[in-house]
Amino acid sequence: MRKTTTRSIQERLKQGIVLGAEGYVFELERRGYIKAGPYVPEVVLDFPEAVKELHREFLRAGSEVMVALTYYAHREKLKDVGREHDLEWMNRQAVRLANEVAREGDALVAGNICNTWAYDPQNVQETSSIVRAMYEEQLSWAVEEGIDFVIAETNDYLGEALIALEVIKQLQLPAMITLATVQQESTRDGYDYVEACKILADHGADIVGLNCDRGPETMLPIIEAIRSAVGCYVAAQPVPYKTNPLAPTFESLRTRNDEQAFPIMLEPFLCTRFEMAAFARQAHSLGVNYIGVCCGGAPHYVRAMAEALGRTVPASKYSPAMELHPMLGSQVSDKDTHFLTDWKS
Ligand SMILES: [Zn+2]
User: Fold this and answer.
1) What's the CA-to-centroid distance between 327 and ligand 1, angstroms?
2) What are phi and psi of 108, to 5 degrees?
3) For residue 326, how far is its CA from the centre of ligand 1 (angstroms)?
4) How far is the CA of 328 from the centre of ligand 1 (A)?
5) Residue 17 gets which letter from DSSP?
6) Distance (Å, rounded) from C-alpha 232 to C-alpha 166?
7) 240, 213 in Cβ contact below 8 A?
8) What is the pLDDT of residue 77?
């Protein structure tokens, strides 16, 4: 059943920041409902209540957007786990679950598509039609179930992102297109991230920006450059991990034993809630319009970000009151909140 929202994504962006929340796949993997490796959201069919619970926790924490859990719910990935026959059912169900919870608050529902692993810049013509067909089928089901806009994310290739944009625009929906930033400066098809966002904006994307891969410290400098280059809305959804100039992405973080921490040994690098609150303030001051979190995200981060933006959300009822702690009392400082002040240097 289609949810009727009171305010569209464009109306909300016009009035101020839209707070989003993602990281569903990582969080549901941690909770035991998704298999790390393939990362296919089988939970949508196998444990729908678990998906709804996480939507609800993000909603209570202040997220204004329920993102349908259709990340990797596409033909290529479902083939890998032998559930290709569940493709349509999984996609429809994901949008229904997002709608059910969105109705409990005043949230928007976003359809979600992502990199397909089918796009090949060496064979653009043939692979583009495969990618297009995958996006068309996923989004046609999503539209039938009811979505307010589409987030096309973790785009490694500008070419693939442009196909997503075209399909979304054919459906006459607002498009938020965000790039993955695994490489140092440019997409896998060789476009500087800033230039790629500019091209997406010129082709009619309503919101452009970055999601995933980078933590606040290494995402913000690129976001700042994107903000100055485009006239449309800008989105930033980093991972809540302490990436740094030497290890700018969470894929490049190494443990003490020099092992790759990504994707299931990342805990030592997690940001605190104060650091994510500081990110929200910093993004706000840069003029970012859609602020959120990606893989590694969890409700306590979202609440801290919402409160940093001056909001009181349902979960604020249980926000920390350390002055009431019998031992710590007023000794707790907010020193962590200032870690981002030097990120430009
Ligand atoms: Zn992510």
Assistant:
1) 37
2) -85, 160
3) 38
4) 35
5) P
6) 17
7) no
8) 87
